[in-house]
Known about the structure:
Blueprint: E1 9-12, E2 32-44, E3 49-64, H1 70-81, E4 92-100, E5 106-115, E6 125-126, E7 134-136
Parallel strand pairs: 3-7
Antiparallel strand pairs: 1-3, 2-3, 2-6, 4-5
Protein name: AIG2-like family protein
Amino acid sequence: MSIPESPNAVFVYGTLKKGQCRESCWPLQPESIQNASIRANLFDREDYPALGQGENTVVGQLWTFQDNDIDKVIHALDKVEGAEQPGSPDLYHRVIVEAYDDQGGSLGYAYTYMYANDPTEDGFQPMTPDASGKIEWVR
């Protein structure tokens, strides 16, 4: 499967998940929300998580939108996540990742936000996988 230039989905793992404090920041309703995972490392701090490069299984949600809505969604989320804002250093970088279902099958590609710096330098602690080998941020 080739990586699309503009996926129509966003993988979220922290405060933007359904039921979390920033759920209201989504500018549009998605077509669907489903449990998903990606390969990365997850870091925790009192206020929010940070995603970094890695090979752990990070559990979150895949929010899928109409193709013609994704630009509006990304524009809003870039502001929330401090990504690609003119004149300001990035807090997060928007990247494209492959998302997986519970059995490890590909759900396709999605945008997600990775912390722009080394999370440990900003007070984040690495999270360790649970007995099933997965990492999930829950508040």
